[in-house]
Design goal:
The chain is an alpha/beta fold. The chain has helices at 3-28, 56-63, 78-87, 115-121, 244-261, 293-316, 393-401, 417-420, 490-505, and strands at residues 31-37, 66-68, 71-72, 125-131, 159-163, 175-176, 179-180, 190-192, 224-225, 228-229, 233-235, 267-272, 322-328, 371-374, 382-384, 388-389, 430-434, 438-442, 445-448, 456-457, 462-463, 471-474. Strand 9 (224-225) and strand 10 form a beta hairpin. Helix 2 (56-63) crosses helix 6 and helix 5 (244-261) runs parallel beside helix 6. It is globular, with a radius of gyration of 23 Å. The protein starts with a helix and ends with a helix. The relative contact order is 0.17.
């Protein structure tokens, strides 16, 4: 072989090797969109058995990927479950990770591995769009009219477009990176959760101004914004305040903009939906469509939103190199602060499916939530009964993209990549659930620690799962937690209590 032919041969070989490496890299470095709904129940989707509401887009997502039947948030409320999947650590290990007020300081560490900075270190463009509720700044006292940090950007997001807490808490404004959007220097924002500020009317004093009445005794009757009473007091920022009916489509448009901008490079997007959290005030086009009140309408809006994201990925030609993970931060609740017909128009719908409890509860409906993973061409469609938690995403993604996690970070997260990819039926061996009481899942059994709290939350109409005696349920045979077997199997109770104590002591 002459020198020129040899050179051409070596070049061709190199190109082939490079092409194979590039394909392998692309396969192992998909775009990842992590979508978290807010207060969506195990029985709220038609692909999970709902018959009174139809969610065709999420059904398609589930049919094309893996639908987990034993997928969990760590906690039955939003802030702690979000802390867990952001950090890979059980939230009860850190003080101050309960439901945060709208003016709370940042609770995510800026010097540890987080879900977004894991991807960022691997060369991904990272973004968050939607609800945050993990605190902003270094203290409660903060100037909402200046730079607001540390926040999402400081824990790993290159771009953030959020509202600070929840839709029922002030301040009702959007933050883009470090600043309130559409802020008017002549109308400064002030926020206070202890005392009234400014002259804005409150729901308590002026119920005649409300387009949605607050439920008695739940605190959603303070500063009125867009005809809805909120938790907390706010003044100023009239131009910056959102309109509830436009929040969801605003977040969708921003999320789509992030996807389009970064379509040529690997990206990680945390898309934190607001539906179906209160106040439920979907776009007019969805109002009255479900027949289940505004909560059902909000779920239809959520499903449409997912369809729009799926449509965009296909249009851009990146659907086959994009993994979508869809889940919810905790279980369902109907009356959570507003009289929006979620209870009176339930019409036989069962938001928790066959499960007992709901949001706030130690029972299964508190943390067992819809959990779907789709990656066309890489993940084969199936239903999986593997025990998985959102907290395990960080360790599993670490394996997927080849980005190691330093020792001491994300210590409670487990690498369940094989289960998430559908290559193994085995998930976690144990999982601690945080609700009104602490509980442990192990080998198909559930142990709930005895507690002194009330057995039923009257204001929201949910069983708490609290009981002065130990509870033991064989979920494999009794998913509805109807038969307490603690007295029948005292040794199993003792064993599971010891396992739980060991985990808590770590």
């Amino acid at each position: 072989m002459n020198k020129n032919l040899l050179t051409l041969f070596l070049m061709a070989l190199a190109c082939t090797a490079f092409g194979q490496t590039a394909k392998k890299t692309a396969k192992n470095r998909p775009n990842v969109i992590f979508i978290c709904a807010d207060d969506l129940g195990y029985g709220d989707l038609s692909c999970y058995g709902a018959t009174k509401i139809n969610t065709p887009n999420l059904d398609r997502l589930a049919a094309a990927g893996i639908r987990f039947t034993d997928g969990h948030a760590t906690s039955a409320t939003c802030t702690p479950s979000r802390y867990a999947f952001m950090t890979g650590q059980y939230p009860w290990r850190k003080k101050g990770t309960g439901i945060l007020p709208g003016d709370a300081a940042l609770i995510i560490p800026t010097d540890k591995t987080t879900l977004p900075n894991l991807f960022k270190k691997a060369g991904y463009q990272t973004g968050i769009v939607g609800k945050w509720h993990l605190g902003i700044g270094e203290a409660v006292a903060k100037d909402w009219n200046g730079e607001l940090k540390p926040g999402p950007n400081e824990v790993g997001f290159d771009y953030s477009f959020i509202f600070p807490a929840t839709a029922d808490r002030v301040p009702t404004v959007f933050l883009e990176n470090h600043k309130v959007l559409a802020l008017d220097a002549n109308d400064p924002i002030e926020v206070d959760y202890a005392k009234k500020v400014g002259n804005d009317p409150t729901g308590k004093d002026h119920p005649e101004l409300l387009k949605m009445q607050s439920s008695p005794g739940q605190g959603h009757n303070q500063t009125i914004v867009n005809g809805i009473g909120r938790i907390g007091y706010m003044s100023g920022g009239k131009m910056a305040r959102w309109v509830d009916e436009e929040v969801s489509t605003t977040f969708l448009n921003v999320a789509q903009g992030f996807i389009e901008k970064n379509q040529q490079q690997p990206f990680f997007l945390y898309y934190a939906l607001t539906e179906p959290h209160v106040p439920r005030m979907p776009a007019t086009r969805f109002k009255g469509k479900s027949g289940l009140g505004l909560r059902g309408d909000a779920i239809l809006q959520l499903d449409w939103t997912i369809g729009e994201i799926m449509k965009q990925l296909k249009l851009l030609g990146i659907d086959k190199n994009t993994m979508i993970v869809f889940t919810s931060d905790n279980g369902p609740v109907l009356d959570d602060g507003y009289q929006d017909e979620a209870v009176t128009k339930l019409n036989g719908h069962t938001p928790a499916g066959v499960l007992r409890g709901g949001k706030y509860s130690a029972l299964e409906a508190g943390t067992r939530v819809p959990f779907i993973l789709s990656w066309p061409g890489q993940v084969q469609p199936r239903v999986s009964s593997a025990l998985v938690s959102q907290m395990d995403l960080i360790a599993s993604f670490s394996k997927l993209i080849g980005q190691p996690i330093p020792a001491g970070d994300a210590t409670d997260s487990e690498n369940l990549l094989d289960a998430f990819m559908g290559e193994s039926k085995k998930g976690r061996s144990v999982l601690v659930e945080q609700g009104a009481s602490i509980s442990l899942l192990k080998d198909g059994w559930k142990y709930i620690v005895p507690g002194k709290g009330a057995a039923f939350m009257q204001d929201v109409g949910i069983e708490t799962g609290s009981s002065p005696v130990a509870q033991l349920y064989h979920l494999t045979e009794d998913l509805g937690e109807k038969n307490n077997l603690a007295s029948k199997y005292p040794e199993r109770v003792k064993e599971m209590a010891a396992v739980l104590e060991k985990i808590q002591a770590q």
